[in-house]
Design a protein that fits this description.
The structure is a single chain. This protein is an alpha/beta fold and 297 residues long. The protein has a domain of 206 residues: 3-Layer(aba) Sandwich (Rossmann fold), CATH 3.40.50.1820. It contains 11 helices and 10 strands. An 8-stranded mixed beta sheet has the order 1-2-4-3-5-6-9-10, sandwiched between helices. α2 crosses α3. It starts with a strand and ends with a helix.
Amino acid sequence: MQKLFQQLKNGEKLAYIKSGHGNTNMILIHGNYASSLQFLQLINQLNPEVYTIYAVDLRCFGDSTCYRKVTSIDDYVEDITRFIKALDIKDPHLVGFSLGGGVAMQLCGHFPNLFKSLILISSTTYRGYPLYKKDEFGNVLTADTYQSAKELEEDIVVKPILTAINEGNREDVIKFMDTYFFKKYHPDEDYYNILIDEVMKLRGLPEAIFAIAAFNMDSGHNFYTAGNHTINFIKLPVLHLVGVNDILTPREMVLDNYYALKDNSRLIEYGGFGHSLLYQLPEEIAKHITMFIRNVL
């Protein structure tokens, strides 16, 4: 699927894939270590007669530009709102995976009337979380947290993948992805290589990780920032999807989001599955999304 490009008025240019020609608009926002191509299997399961789908490469991911690295989730939010305005996308349903879930929630918190519904797949929590430092053996130091993206560059997990990407070392990128993302499930070889190609394009990794951690839509202070209360502004229908065995965005994070938005939320849990829902269950996820949107309409 060929990528298209949209120039934004802030100077950045977002790559995206467009699929379908239906009357129901949908915007897909990917997770970390990925791009819009993370959604290929899901897109193939959604009826092109019903949906017009826009899957976007976030700033510094995939083939989008990275003139300014992000300082917070709000930078992604700015880009997506400019993207929607530039393409005149009306009443879209918003889908966010992992990191993309945080971006999607903040979009709906800032612009509650812009979207028809919110669908969160294995989403990060709306309250952020501490980035604990580790010793040389990988043990977590709970008394000490990273306080900047720059500091995070030296993390025992982040530094090797950052170095591998910067040096174009595909073998080490594969080793990292197999350890943390594809340990229990491996997509078919052709698609897997496409996903690895997209990881190799990643820029601004520490900034993306720190943005997720400092993200805070709550009313209190987390480890980094005061909350902006915007979780309270999300009144549209919300669907939460999570693999019960997810260790990258644990079930507890998703339940945080669900209970914060319980009055207008539905939760679906997939037993025996982890963070690879998009690769293992695209047909099932598409079915649940379609049923949910039908009820919204």
